Amino acid sequence: MQYEPRTLTICLNKHFTKQEVPIRVLKTFLIPEDFHSRHRAESRTYLYRLAIVKADALNVAPHLHLLPVEELQRCLFICTDTFDINEMKRASKLFEGLHDFRTFMARGSKDPDKMTRRVVNRVEIIEGKPLTSCSYSWPSFMCPSREDYQYYDVYVQASGFLYRQVRRMVASLIAVAQGKVSSSDIKLMLEVPSHRTWIDNIKTVPAHGLYLCEVEYLERDRATFRDSLEGGQ
Predict the structure, then answer these.
(1) What is the pLDDT of residue 56?
(2) Number of H helices, E strands in the chain
(3) Residues of the chain with pLDDT under 70
(4) 136 phi/psi in degrees, rounded to 5
(5) Cα–Cα distance, 47 to 58 (Å, whole number)
(6) Residue-by-residue DSSP string for 18-40
(7) Which of 2, 58, 84, 226 could form a disulfide with 30 if both were Cys (CB 3.0 to 4.6 A apart)?
(8) What tens digit of pLDDT does each residue of 37-47 get?
(9) Model pTM?
(10) How far apart are CA 197 and CA 102, in angstroms?
(11) Which residues contact residue 38 at a Cβ distance below 8 angstroms, ignoring those fewer than 6 apart?
(12) What is the DSSP string of 146-161?
């Protein structure tokens, strides 16, 4: 039995609300039986959010409770006096183009013989914004000024990614910004693709700052999507 796409959208959102799952479906389409949403994707864009605060701006230990509640588990909080965003941006360009990213694939991959060459179309780092606009999110009696917090959005676009590739790429760029590794170290990991060349003092960033922003499909595929049983677009 086929259901109208609009009916599926409503039922899915009711289910997510009932289960307290923070997902909302905006629109549902009928697709051909031979269409595969993952294998037919032309590109994917991921975002990783960072919140940087200087250690000397804090009067107490830099725990996560110093983030506004809206940002809890929604970005990576880093407390440091050393963070060179310009060096981070320069190093990010090393990832663009065709490379073997085996070094940046976590060992947890179930396919050790997986093809690990990928084309990364774009790595872009821009100034971000906090999710909060409420003054009560930043209690004045315990927090520094919100101007002491700098947010950065790291966008990575490619046709496909390896297991934890984006999180390990971002971790490497953070390590460059903090002076723990150099751009030459990243270049070596790309030129000598092996788990042995991964630098152990680079710690993979957690998943809670990572977002899948967009999946793009070819126009000829999108032309086959239908938003009703009658076949209208």
Answers:
(1) 67
(2) 5, 6
(3) 56-66, 108-113, 132-147, 231-233
(4) -75, -10
(5) 27
(6) HTT---------B--TT--TTTT
(7) 226
(8) 988 999 999 99
(9) 0.86
(10) 10
(11) none
(12) GGGEEEEEEEEEES--
